[in-house]
Specification:
With 384 residues, this protein is an all-alpha fold. It has 17 helices and no strands. Helix 5 packs across helix 6 and helix 6 packs antiparallel against helix 7. The two termini are 25 Å apart. The C terminus is likely disordered.
Length: 384
């Protein structure tokens, strides 16, 4: 039995190594054509999809590597924590109403869209709400497996939402910031021009973050890897004010690896997602499009009420992955402080609201009349 587990671990490690290698090649290609703001996240998505799609015939039960995503969240979270000036964080107290209202608006919009989608697709309300709640793909898919009947549809809508946002925001950013250049030569120069002391400090910080995240996970803190790493990064940033010895210049290669790992898991979901009918995929565009419109409306409201740039407002309200949106904000230097705070509040709001969401959906499902001719059955829409 231990030999079987060891073989699975080795196989998974080889897959991750293959994904990172392929993502690196694709990432350099994306840099070469000028797509720099999210080249590494996008390359990770492509690599994860390609590798898992190719491996699926040999391992039909393969599942996305959640440890890879946690590692990506930890690495990127440290970068985020180090990039947040502590003296500026208190300045956003005056915008607390906007920061608290944004996740509530997105949750309410997602709930309304979920009700509409459940009727359009003729599925149970629980699955409809899980498909359109702007939360973590893995969490929503797991909840669909436990409480809903349509895991494949939930995964499909969440994947389409997530991937559409990650692909579209960099394109919008390139249009909004045409003078922003990210070339292969610039990247290689930044990666190579790093003293060994920087790698030593960063490695020590990562080790501390791993320990903190381990204990945070034991305490069942939501998104422990992401929040724990941000806390460690902020801790080092605070200590650097007292003593320059704690100042850490995070190597760009670490940040790139973190972004690739974030993208890889999303690609893996695409690689194993069961094949659905074209009409089903076409109908899934409806809730995804409505969620994107809700994000644009929220961004427009924030832009009208604040002095922030349109791109910063879009990164705050975009219903995509929080680590990915914050990483893009850091790359583009677009108000990463308030964007980080906005997404942290959104993540906490969604995770704390899930029991209420599940209770509401269960109550509505129990009191709604049964559909004698559902479009999807549990067997046909659950993952293999």
């Amino acid at each position: 039995m231990p030999n079987v587990e060891q073989s699975k671990l080795q196989a998974r490690s080889l897959l991750v190594a293959l994904e990172i290698s392929l993502a690196s090649l694709i990432g350099f290609g994306l840099l070469a054509i000028g797509l720099g703001s999210a080249a590494w996240i996008l390359s990770g998505i492509a690599a994860g999809a390609i590798v898992y799609f190719g491996d699926r015939p040999f391992d039909p039960d393969i599942q996305p590597n959640r440890n890879a995503r946690k590692a990506g969240q930890l690495i990127v979270g440290l970068s985020i924590g180090l990039s947040l000036p502590i003296d500026r964080l208190a300045n956003f107290a005056s915008q607390s109403l906007i920061l608290l209202g944004l996740p509530i608006f997105l949750m309410v919009a997602g709930g309304a869209i979920g009700v509409l989608y459940s009727r359009l697709e003729k599925i149970d309300l629980m699955s409809g709400l899980l498909a359109t709640t702007p939360g973590n793909i893995g969490v929503m898919s797991s909840l669909a497996a436990d409480y809903g009947n349509h895991i494949a549809l939930v995964s499909l809508v969440q994947l389409m939402r997530f991937t559409t946002v990650i692909f579209s925001v960099p394109l919008i950013a390139n249009v909004a910031l045409p003078n922003s250049t990210h070339t292969v030569t610039t990247f290689v120069g930044q990666a190579l021009n790093v003293p060994w002391q920087t790698y030593a400090k960063s490695s020590l910080m990562i080790t501390i973050a791993v320990v903190i995240v381990h204990f945070a996970t034991q305490l069942n803190i939501p998104l422990a890897a992401f929040f724990g790493a941000i806390a460690v990064g902020l801790g080092f940033e605070f200590l650097s004010i007292l003593d320059d010895l704690f100042h850490v210049d995070y190597p760009i290669i670490f940040n790139v690896i973190g972004q690739i790992l974030l993208g890889i898991t999303i690609g893996e979901y695409w690689g194993i997602n069961p094949r659905l009918k074209f009409v089903t995929v076409l109908r899934a565009i409806v809730p995804v499009g409505m969620m994107l419109i809700a994000g644009l409306i929220a961004a427009a409201i924030i832009h009208a009420l604040t002095h922030l740039s349109w791109l910063s407002c879009l990164l705050m309200a975009a219903p995509g992955g929080s680590p990915e949106m914050i990483a893009i904000a850091l790359t583009l230097q677009q108000d990463p402080e308030i964007i980080t705070i906005a997404h942290i509040i959104r993540l906490l709001t969604i995770n704390l609201s899930l029991p209420i969401l599940l209770g509401f959906a269960a109550y509505q499902t129990a009191h709604q009349p049964s559909d004698s001719s559902p479009r999807h059955t549990s067997k046909s829409s659950s993952s293999k």
